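pasting Ion channel for the record, 263 residues
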Amino acid sequence: MKAAEQDGKGLRLRARLRALYHGSSPAAVRFRFGVIIVDLAIIAFFIAAPILRDYGWAFYTLDILVLLLLSADLAARAIAWGGLRDFLKRPIVWVDLFVLLTLLFPDALFNLGFLRVLRLWTLIHSEFFWRTVGRRYDDTRIEEIVKTAGTLVTFVFVVTGFVYTSFIGRYEGISGYVDALYFTVTSLTTTGYGDILLPGVWGRLLSIVIMLAGVSLFIRLIQTMLRPHKVLHPCQTCGLQRHDPDAVHCKACGQILDIPNDD
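structre below
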């Protein structure tokens, strides 16, 4: 009898969480907006962690609070998903598990803490984010711009964290997190003021990687912003995904399209 009651409670909990994480009701949308806001605040904490670490017990208190929040969120998403095996196959889950590991051992894994910022990339590219935000901004072009900008911002802060943890205390040019951020941005934009130069062959190779990858991401962002607006509407005949908003026929095969239009 007790086992049946527990099974019933478990099923009700799963149904409730599934409705919140995957449903379309106003309450579910508000819940997901709240989760996204908390996620963005946590990501801001991750970015500022190298600076906040100097505050001692206050930093570790926040670290534990973030650990509890992310653990609760991950457990709730796992229950809502249904199958644990399928849930663990998702790359975003492994990113979250790694983040939890760095929060659980903040001192031992401090040099890998900069990878926590990858959570920004997984959030911006997640179905969870666009199923929530897309209800208000249902625009393919806006989605592409936000994803590209999110990738660029993630790259900047991941590289900044890597430069900071790799060269702080070993090279006098990098004396703080802001110096590492300054070096990353000047290298990415190829400004190259020359006041901060990473020493050795590895320093030069890192600078080359930042310039090539950063400039590519920046150009990609500009292209996304300037590219003519397209809508996502797969052609039933040839499968072409993107078309002009007022297109009547598919430009690849000539098939008649039925693109929804609010006008």
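The CA atoms of residues 21 and 128 lie 8 Å apart.
Strands lie at 231-232, 242-243.
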